[in-house]
């Protein structure tokens, strides 16, 4: 692969990225109190965003499109190919990878639980930044799912943010 794929995501302390219904109110109600998470700097470093249908639909509920100037790819078997002119819909991981390589994508932001899990299982994810919110949800959509094998990580740093948030950065070994 000629591209570098990174995940930058928030979880509850018990490892969920959303409530069972997909709501992220637990994060949006607290997130600003965390202070500078490095997200803006991270976003300036990426040229492409890859997400799944659920994440795409969540983004559509925002009052603004957060990916101006970025190529946005959506991996989905159900989203209509012409769902939105700002995105390209891919049915398969192979088709997505072919497009990323053909277009010369350099640094990719992988967003959403299923896409992150898919990239992890396929050995395509290079780095992982997890911001942990000081809340327990008890149930929801997990960041990580079943794996065929262990995935070794190198812990690069953990920093304490404001309001009880922490953030850890890892390099993923393939």
Task: Give the class-level CATH name.
Answer: Alpha Beta
What name goes with the CATH superfamily? Dihydrofolate Reductase, subunit A
Structural domain count: 1
Relative helix content: 10-25%
InterPro entries: DHFR-like_dom_sf, RibDG_C, Riboflavin_Biosynth_HTPR
Pfam families: RibD_C
GO molecular function: 5-amino-6-(5-phosphoribosylamino)uracil reductase activity
Protein name: Dihydrofolate reductase
Brief overview:
With 174 residues, the chain is α/β, with parallel strands linked by helices.
Chain-wise SSE layout:
Blueprint lengths: L3 E9 L3 E3 L6 H4 L10 H6 L3 E5 H8 L10 E5 L11 E4 L2 H11 L3 E5 L1 H9 L5 E7 L7 E2 L10 E8 L5 E7 L2
GO molecular function, one term: 5-amino-6-(5-phosphoribosylamino)uracil reductase activity
Organism: Kribbella steppae
GO biological process, one term: riboflavin biosynthetic process
């Amino acid at each position: 692969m000629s591209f570098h794929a990174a995940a930058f995501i928030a979880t509850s302390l018990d490892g969920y990225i959303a409530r069972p219904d997909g709501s992220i109110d637990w994060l949006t109600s607290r997130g600003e109190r965390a202070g500078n998470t490095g997200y803006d700097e991270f976003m300036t470093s990426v040229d492409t965003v890859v997400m799944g249908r659920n994440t795409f639909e969540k983004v559509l509920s925002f009052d603004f499109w957060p990916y101006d100037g970025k190529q946005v790819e959506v991996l989905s078997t159900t989203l209509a190919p012409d769902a939105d002119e700002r995105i390209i819909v891919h049915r398969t991981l192979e088709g997505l990878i072919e497009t990323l390589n053909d277009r010369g994508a350099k640094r990719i932001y992988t967003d959403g639980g299923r896409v992150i899990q898919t990239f992890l299982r396929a050995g395509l994810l290079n780095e992982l930044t997890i911001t942990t919110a000081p809340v327990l949800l008890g149930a929801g959509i997990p960041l990580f799912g079943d794996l065929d094998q262990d995935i070794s990580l190198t812990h690069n740093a953990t920093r304490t943010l404001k309001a009880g948030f922490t953030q850890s950065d890892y390099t993923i070994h393939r």
